[in-house]
């Protein structure tokens, strides 16, 4: 049974309550948001100091303390108290989590304070500090904790819309472990779940209008969502080929999410028409999302598509590349047969030139070199994985954030792969290449290939700036490695260094061998004979050749 006490006077007790440091942060957050004199109902906030401080700040307070295992407002008299109090804010404290059914308790509270804003204060069960305290058996572990995702679900189920998220306490060094070890664990936890950086949270919500209520959407098992990003309608022929390659996939439980930043008013209609034209071949579903922009928002386009994706599996395909019919089936088969969270296929590079009439034609293809095993040190050294060569199984990632770094206009997919590979090793698809990375000589690729001198100079500047950001990410990335894995990676690095040392020597030896070849020996002897017996002719030929080389 819960008990309540209504306090409307500024001071009910001559005794000065002590405000705990953690509650001081909560108090400041409340005072920053509330209007003067706002009426507050506190549910499960076992802090006399906080209650007194709010009263002293001029806020009428109605407080319900909750014995463990009970829910708020279980006594009819309390229902009337809350209803007649007309609270502008209901603050749910840690004690709310003691209820046998917090979701039911929240619903019951809302019945009697339907117009109030709801704020929930709690310690995050997934914070680095909470996890380290639990692992070390520390007595300072908060007694009542909850995962942010669970609280958010309770709010949504109750018909509330999350308005803002405040971090009252960030994770910090606790001294329970050696500083370096604790720092490494904090980084690891935050890479797996960014929410691990928040130790204590305050979530603000209000009743959602019918139009604002978004039902929780579970991933569709087995579905593959392919996100395509599009910048303009200037290369519709390439877009058409990319979509046709998706329509021809052997894996048929497929949705295409096209996200375009084109400012052309007909962009959505044009892209929809292409998708509809190929739909009878592939029987896929599709969405076209429009985010018009005059700047390059390539990472934002992918993230927009990923948020809309419904599939258990996700992939990214640029609108100028293609995938072969067996591509996604082989990737997903490898995932289903194993335990990995993502898989990579082999890639074929296709080199395109621009004909005099402006049309592109393929002048040749080769396979992107790759060893039979995933080698982390190679990925750390440079990005050797194209963005359309992988598929991710989101059901095996937990709270790991699947998304590209929007602060990067280049290397955005590389940053994601570094974060992913640090915690999850991929499976590899054996056999021949199953997708095609198209490189054009007109400079329209973002890579350092093709284009005139001006285009090349601009690309070099952009890549240099992006590389600096990537290097900063690498310096702070925590990697999961067994000692055996570390030894193997170190051996691969040593071998690569030795190969690099030998290469100049081998190249020099090849040059010596070439100069010692019979045809070069004959030419050298002929040159010496002409110089000795026909010096004038030799000088004339030498001057003529020198003028040609200027």
TrEMBL record:
Pfam families: Glycos_transf_2. One of its GO terms (molecular function) is transferase activity. Residues 236-362 form the Glycosyltransferase 2-like domain. InterPro entries: Glyco_trans_2-like, Glycosyltransf_2, Nucleotide-diphossugar_trans. The keyword Transferase applies. Keywords: Transferase. This is Glycosyltransferase. It comes from Pyxidicoccus fallax.
